């Protein structure tokens, strides 16, 4: 079993979107019994909350369901439980490296490092600027690349 954890700041916009998109793509390829997907935030702002309604609406418009997800905070145990810890941006990437055990830091990656068709290096937080459509497109591309990477390794 390969375990993938997507991480943003509050776990209500970007990481639940990535969680839902990647989980959907894994299921489409018949790999749900081989790849486990989850999401978390580096901060405790929204623990227990559902994803932002705007994230859910944008995801739903493209066939992804985020409604069962609830926000949680990253825990130190996640570094041993997950094979890939995928940060949405550099700030969260750096936060993860600060709390990661030394022998687990190699598991931390930037989401868009797996994208094949996007020039950006970070998935921006859409919470204050309404960029939910762009965020979804970035995540779809990165999800395809990550899934290819996992299948090839």
TrEMBL record:
CDD domains reported for this sequence: LMWPTP (cd16343)
Source organism, top-level taxon: Bacteria
Pfam assignment, any one: LMWPc
InterPro entries: LMW_PTPase, Ptyr_pPase, Ptyr_pPase_sf, Tyr_phospatase_low_mol_wt
Entry's EC annotation: 3.1.3.48
Record's keyword annotation contains Transferase: no
GO molecular function, one term: protein tyrosine phosphatase activity
Keyword terms, alphabetized: Hydrolase, Protein phosphatase
Entry annotation: catalytic residues: 8, 14, 125
Phosphotyrosine protein phosphatase I domain ranges (all copies): 2-149
UniProt cross-references to PANTHER family, sorted A to Z: LOW MOLECULAR WEIGHT PHOSPHOTYROSINE PROTEIN PHOSPHATASE, LOW MOLECULAR WEIGHT PROTEIN TYROSINE PHOSPHATASE
Family of the protein in this entry: Belongs to the low molecular weight phosphotyrosine protein phosphatase family.
Name of the molecule in the record: protein-tyrosine-phosphatase
């Amino acid at each position: 079993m390969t375990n993938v954890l997507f991480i943003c700041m509050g776990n209500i916009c970007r990481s639940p979107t990535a969680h839902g998109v990647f989980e959907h793509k894994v299921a489409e390829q018949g790999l749900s019994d081989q790849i486990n997907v989850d999401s978390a935030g580096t901060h405790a702002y929204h623990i227990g909350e559902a994803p932002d309604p705007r994230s859910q609406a944008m995801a739903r418009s493209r066939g992804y369901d985020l409604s069962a997800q609830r926000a949680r905070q990253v825990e130190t145990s996640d570094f041993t439980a997950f094979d890939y810890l995928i940060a949405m941006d550099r700030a969260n990437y750096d936060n993860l490296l600060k709390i990661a055990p030394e022998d687990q830091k190699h598991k931390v990656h930037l989401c868009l490092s797996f994208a094949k068709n996007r020039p950006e290096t970070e998935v921006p937080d859409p919470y204050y600027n309404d960029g939910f459509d762009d965020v979804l497109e970035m995540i779809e591309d990165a999800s395809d690349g990550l899934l290819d990477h996992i299948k090839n390794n």
